Give the backbone structure.
Amino acid sequence: MPSVAANSPAPLTISVAAGKGGTGKTLVSTSLAIELAYEYPDKVALLDGDVEEPNADLLMPTVFEDSQPVHILVPEVDAEACIHCGKCAEACQASAIAKIRDVVVTFHELCTGCGACAYVCPVDAIAEVPRKVGRIDRGIAAGSVEFTQGRSEIAQQHTGSVTSALKAHIKSGKVSIVDAPPGTSCPMQETIEDSDYCILVTEPTPFGLNDLKAAVETCRTLSVPHGVVINRDGIGDRAVEDYCKTEGISVLLKIPHERRIAEAYSRGETLVLAFPEWRGPLGQVFDAIVEEVAQ
Amino acid sequence: MTGYKQMTVVSGKGGTGKTSVLASFAALADGKVIADTDVDAANLHIMLHPTVLTTEEFWGAKIAVRDPEKCKQCGECERACRFDAITVDDINEYACEGCGLCTLVCPEKALVLEPALTGDLYVSETKYGPMAHARLVPGAESSGRLVTMVRQAAETIAIRDGLDTVIIDGPPGIGCTVTAAIADIDLALVVTEPTPSGIHDMARVLKTADYFGVSCAVIVNKADINEALSDETERVAAEHGARAIGRLPYDSVVTEAVSAMTPVVEFAPDSGVSKAITRCWSDLEQMLKSL
């Protein structure tokens, strides 16, 4: 039942992350985006920033309209001009260029595209050529969600440039939901660092708690306000809820452990598409976030 | 060349049951070293209760540090940086790749690269055997290098104690930590689940393993959630040259075992899932011997 409300949503960037993978991050990000798009048609963007394993499009009907490659500049050594001084190899922190006797060899998979080798080359023997490290696919999901997905190339070590290219699509004036990669290290941090809020999805098990604590620490380090969604509520114990209470972290939503939710997921149907009764609770999650950010 | 075989458990998608399966293998296998290379969200210690014997500091990736006394705010660094990590008055340590270009272009030599203490590497003892693992400071830069250090520690133990097998819990995804966790191993075991994301992510990790010339086997976890997609998973696995070695049933006893912090083959040895894991392990043991 799409709303005809002309009012605009608070134009927040909300990332959805999880220390532990497979806790339901994408179930939450897609459901939240779809629910908000029902309320605010054409005012909602979903960005899939899990660039190593992007799969938000597998949980909702998605029509892709455009695909752009992401390139970085990698070195190409002119063997004729090279004087084998080794300055390039010395400058490279990624071990992507090496001098072996009188030959300079490059390892493009390891290259971050920083340009230090070309900068230090005294004889301009290094040209920088584009190398495709991923792509940005854009389209419309579930009718009116503006969808953007980053996808890294296989065997590409440095996924940061794909994340940066994706984040360039965050637009003002819209709600942007950003699906972050799992974990708490560089890919996750780069994805969530400029968010107004970060939803941390976890499950009530010792694994979920352990990884949630690390994700909370990361949000605190980055000064990103955050709250928790507990998925598969009922499978484990109360330790996650007790932890949130002690730490003063809002529990935004609890999704019960139900086989029918898992089965819908395995058919490629996210929560609000399979079970519309979840629209209300997800709308309330957004309202709670707007309130928390305003404070 | 080496006297031991190495197997890494990966998944592509997180939360497919990788660590639960590996903890059970740890309980079943003889003569092995255990390594947890999911340094970003390490969980294996929760199941195996290691007693730490030695701790080594991990100095992670370098980042640029500025000496404000020397800086004349000329902006050369800001113009040179391709990662938008530096301005005349700030350095974004999360965006900084540690490439050092800014230190090279700075006319005042006001910038240097400095490593940061970002974690600890542990060698431990468990009731199941020796274990190498690590802890990364939350919010720190992750690193394939820490994964490599954990693996080196495990291999050193395997050589010292004359053990046959190194079983490695790998990280999710297909990025630099996964590459480090599967480099030069004998077998990658992909634990996946019969969902569209499970299949998609498994295919990406199988392609990654293939790129590095690593043989793969696949276990479909929670197979009875969707039998048709379990068939599809095994078909896609075969297409990528991986051998499907078994299916595990969905069973809440696996979560109960996690809550009890005990490998499921010990927590509920007579359950269907424990029997299936035990069968998978004997197949894998044979596979590892024959590789």
User: Anything to note?
Assistant: The two ends of chain B are 13 Å apart (CA to CA).
